[in-house]
UniProtKB/TrEMBL annotation:
UniProt entry tagged with the keyword Hydrolase: yes
Name this protein carries in UniProt: HAD-IA family hydrolase
Keyword Repeat found: no
Recorded GO MF terms: phosphoglycolate phosphatase activity
Lineage: Bacteria, Pseudomonadati, Pseudomonadota, Gammaproteobacteria, Moraxellales
Amino acid sequence: MSNCSEKPTIIFDMDGTLLDLAYDDFIWNDLLPIRYAELHNCSIEQSKATLYAFYQEHNHTLNWYSSRFWTSKVEVDVLAMQIEHKNKVAFRPNCLELLDYLKNHGYPMWLATNADCAGLKFKLEHMGIADYFDVIVSSEQIGHAKEFIEFWQGLNKLHPFNAKHVYFIDDTEKVLNGAKNYGIEHLFSIKQPSSAKAPRVTCNYPMLDQLTELIAHLNPAEVEQKYA
Ligand SMILES: [Mg+2]
């Protein structure tokens, strides 16, 4: 499986795509409001109102994805809080099955995440999936969030790729829009990023439910043999 030059590169998002977003929802929407209320001596309602105002202000920026930013903003060590609850991090359905299939069939795999370097590091170590990927990059390294074309320009500069020969899977529509603006054509969203929330009904991109559904889009003939 060493010669993989003819296979397209598969670029994955991490949270909400490979990993269940229920963990992040728990950290940011349940646990942080409790910790913030304890620290700042306010009610949970006040805490949630304050935090949601911060969330609105910083959503889709690099700050949003930065543990350091949030730690200084809310005075709760959010990285330590995430690590404390790392046992709640979980794979989305058929994640390892897809990664194994792609690895065994010689597809180059990259991980491109908006998680900051510290958050990325602990999740990769905890879940043990780093070895699947030829390239692992955080938008913190590039200096732009994936929502913006500058991220993709920066990624290509760091790790050259052919946008026409890439499949990119991400649960955030604004991120997919950024990739589309850059010229990536094969784009997929996720039907249910968080197991704690209802599946999406509509999306502007084809949605994967079980991650192994991607295989049918890569090589329909092979799928008939392997998964018939
Ligand atoms: Mg995501």
